[in-house]
Amino acid sequence: MCGLCLPHCPTYTQTRNENESPRGRIAIARALAEKNLPVSETLFRHLDQCILCRACERACPSGVSYGHLMDKTRQLLHENGMNKSNKLMQKLTTEKKMMKTLGTGLWFYQQSGLHWLANKTGIGKINALLPEKLSIKKWQSFYPSLSPERGRVALFTGCIASITDQETLHSTIALLNLIGFSVNVPEQQGCCGALHLHNGDSQQAKEMAQNNIQVFAELDINTIITTATGCSTTLLDYSTLINSPSADTFSMQIKDINQFLSEIDWQQEIKFLPLEKNILIHEPCSQKNIKIPHGKIQQLLGQIPSININTLPEKMQCCGAGGDYMMKYPDMAAQLREPVIAYLQQHPTDILVTSNIGCAMHIRAGIQQAGLQTEILHPVTLLAKQLAETRDNPVAQAVS
Ligand code: SF4
Ligand code: SF4
User: Fold this and answer.
1) Which residue segment(s) compose the domain that 60 sits in?
2) Closest C-alpha to ligand 2, atom 8
3) Residue 171 domain-assigned?
4) Which of 203, 286, 291, 371 could bridge across to 229 with cysteines, CB 3.0–4.6 Å?
């Protein structure tokens, strides 16, 4: 009841409406659970307009577990038929075949040159969400180390990222292989289930979690590398979603690639090409939530000679991407992105690095709308691009 979380909440900051604040939403959720308020469109909207950025959770001095509370509340709403999730997105993330077909379709669309034509029409909006060059490389189940093997890990590829962010995933594999890690990429892995969980379909989310737990348990590894912090947060939550020792083991094995690289000793073996560019680090809310110690990405990129690194101001709030939030509430999402774009307009930036695919897509669309030239990369892709050996190295092929 203290309200200390209010100034940290992006939707409250925009609306100044207590119903759009963490404290207000908790009060609504409680009234709903205690059957003191009926399910209504207004009640649903206040709860659904929460981005689940969990900035309130970080700010709360009483340790209120807001994220879990809201997942349960949305489950209750889902059971009452209230759900504004994007059905196509949910289907795509559940059915791998459909996702692969979409990936191939988008690749052909980009190759065909039609995307330039499409810019003149409504469907050109899709271009803003896509990276400059999509790839449809087939995954191998195992990528052996290129130097004496110091360990084996597995890679979680994700659903959307496995088609729209192959550059990051292949850079991750290539870098890991170069520094002595073999990488397993199990074919049967699926989406983390975040969209289903956050839209109240916890049954489907549990089924997706069970599949991933089983697939990765079959491998002889003790680390599962993730590259998208949005997925990492959900994968870390499997131990809460499913009450079983295998779910606990799975969640304990999750390690974000930035965190993994900052915790092992490898830098002295590798040289990076200088890069005289202005880099801006964007920290996704999910990155702050999974507690990658502040400054680690700066430290990693700082190994590139001549690089100039800045970070977005600490007080900058959620960019508004929030999984499918940017599709469900595009106006609010665009409003929340505005400070990031304004910062880029005032501080010329060559490359913005972010570790979450959703934020990358949403901010890229804003950059294109504003006519800026800033490129968006994952920190690991930038590292891989600058490897001094890239001229004759498989990393170069992986990144190109
Ligand atoms: S999760 Fe984010 S948007 Fe939702 S109430 Fe908390 S701070 Fe506000
Ligand atoms: S969630 Fe925490 S910070 Fe927000 S009002 Fe409740 S106790 Fe205070």
Assistant:
1) 6-79
2) 2
3) no
4) 286
Minimum CA distance residue for ligand 2 atom 3: 60
156 domain residue, yes or no = no
pLDDT tens for 84-116 read: 766 666 666 676 666 666 666 665 655 566 555
Question: Would residue 366 count as lying in a domain?
Answer: yes
For residue 288, CA distances in Å to 16, 23, 54, 310 come to: 24, 21, 9, 17
The finding on whether 52 has its CB within 6 A of some atom of ligand 1 is yes
pTM recorded for the entire structure: 0.87
Q: How many Å lie between the centroid of ligand 2 and the Cα of residue 291?
A: 20
| Higher per-residue confidence, 31 vs 263 | 31
Domain edge (last residue) among 79, 113, 131: 79
Tally the domains of the chain: 2
| Residue written as token pair 């209750």 | 76
Domain termination residue (choose one: 44, 79, 114): 79
Give residue 84 CA to ligand 2 midpoint distance, Å.
27
